[in-house]
Amino acid sequence: MSTSDGWLAAALVPLLALVPVLWRIAYGSPGDRLIGQNLTSLLAGLVLLLAAQGFHRTSYNDVALVVSVLGPTGTLIYARFLDVLPDSRLVRWTALVGVPATVLPLCVATGPGRAMAKLLLIGVLLIAGSVVTSGRGAREGVTA
Amino acid sequence: MTDVLIVVALLLVAGAATAAVLNRDPMRQALVLSFLGLALALLFTFLQAPDVALSQLAVGSAVTPLMILLTVRKVRRRPGSGDGVDKPAGRER
């Protein structure tokens, strides 16, 4: 099985970033936990994208696609139950900086085609989901 | 390099599972459990089993925590059980 270590080493960065997130989820206030859950799905999506490239299996991107759909949905459901949906600059900036920094090199490495369109779709979904669940505008939906 | 990823993912799974056990409030356990589901999905992907990871994502990170949340809500809503919240959690273990 041929793997490329560069991409896998890059996948290690968001993976290690999950460790402090786990700490916050386990011991933080309810708002912190929700931010942690949001950040977890975002970082997991990035790890999966990078790992798919590292293993030379573009079909692994399906898992990242499912994460990018389920993650923000789950956050909104938890927000409904816990009655908090905190503003989170951390999530928003991680999404706005981290996702393009991951997806654009992957697109360059993949080359044009179906796989690249899928990568871009996953990136857009990740950014959109994070912006919706971390912004002020989402707050009205919670109290309803 | 794959081994490093697998080891880190395994440590995350172990940490998340321990945190889920140590948390006493079911509401909080649900969130830790969804983290555990995501960590397991990552581990399965690193072990080159993306189909298992997909089902783990659906079950572990979405359905199970949602069922716990719904159950806790139902139990809390029942009249005359002011502090009955902790009992179902104790029964699960």
UniProtKB/TrEMBL annotation, chain A:
Respond yes or no to whether keyword Cell division is given for this record: no
Q: Where are the transmembrane segments?
A: 34-51, 63-81, 93-112, 119-138
What Pfam families does the record tag this protein with?
A: MrpF_PhaF
Instruction: List keywords of the entry alphabetically.
Output: Cell membrane, Membrane, Transmembrane, Transmembrane helix
Does Cell membrane appear among the keywords?
A: yes
| InterPro entries associated with the record | MrpF/PhaF-like
Which superkingdom is the protein from? Bacteria
Protein location: Cell membrane
Task: Report how it sits in the membrane.
Answer: Multi-pass membrane protein
Q: What name goes with this protein? A: MrpF/PhaF family protein
Q: Which organism is it from?
A: Streptomyces rugosispiralis
Automatic annotation (TrEMBL), chain B:
The answer to whether the entry has keyword Transmembrane helix is: yes
Q: Principal localization? A: membrane
Membrane disposition: Multi-pass membrane protein
Q: Where in the cell is it found?
A: Cell membrane
Q: List each copy of the MrpA C-terminal/MbhD domain by range.
A: 11-77
Residue ranges annotated as coiled coil are none
The keyword Protein biosynthesis appears for this protein: no
Which residue spans traverse the membrane? 6-23, 30-47, 53-72
Q: Which domain of life is it from?
A: Bacteria
Pfam families, alphabetized: MbhD
Question: What Gene3D superfamilies does this protein map onto?
Answer: NADH-ubiquinone/plastoquinone oxidoreductase chain 6, subunit NuoJ
**Which keywords does UniProt give here?**
Cell membrane, Membrane, Transmembrane, Transmembrane helix
What is the protein's given name?
DUF4040 domain-containing protein
Q: Can you name the source organism?
A: Streptomyces rugosispiralis
Classification lineage: Bacteria, Bacillati, Actinomycetota, Actinomycetes, Kitasatosporales
